[in-house]
Amino acid sequence: MNTDKSLFRSIAMLAVSTGLLLLIPLIAMQFSNDVVWTLSDFIFAGTLLFGTGLTYKLITRKSGEIIFRMAVGFALFTGFFLIWSNLAVGIIGSENNAINLLYFGVIFIGIIGAFIARFKSKGLALTMFAMAIIQALITVTAFITGMHHLPEVTVYHILAVNGFFITLFIVAAMLFRFAAEDQTSGNSVETK
Length: 192
Known about the structure:
Blueprint: H1 2-31, H2 39-60, H3 66-88, H4 103-116, H5 121-144, H6 155-191
């Protein structure tokens, strides 16, 4: 019962935080013509923010391990940032470039991998490594298909942005790996 109240409070705080964050672009729209959000932009941003926070709460609510919580937060932030930047400006070229749809495959692999791993550290580490590999394959695909020849895209841009996300996924994988080792060593100490 107490856990349900705690979860309800966390969800309520998350909803309030999401609303407060959405006030930033709403206020900016009043003072600048550069910020132009539609109702659908607000709905999508709110859903993405709230959904990411709720996912964090649900995955970590039964875990007291700080390293696991950090790993989940890092992984979710990376996925959130990949979606946000892809939809806002596009990873390769503009957000309308068809190759950018491939990045949703990275997120899809993450979601499927998390469920297959049953949200356990060892499996989540493998999932993060898989996401990094898929991100690297998209980078190679961009070069094979000649995306670096587009006027607004450079080789450096493709390598830097994709390398950034690959690095974040690898860091998340290493955090999960460390959490799995910590769990294993904790269990062996308890059984002795």
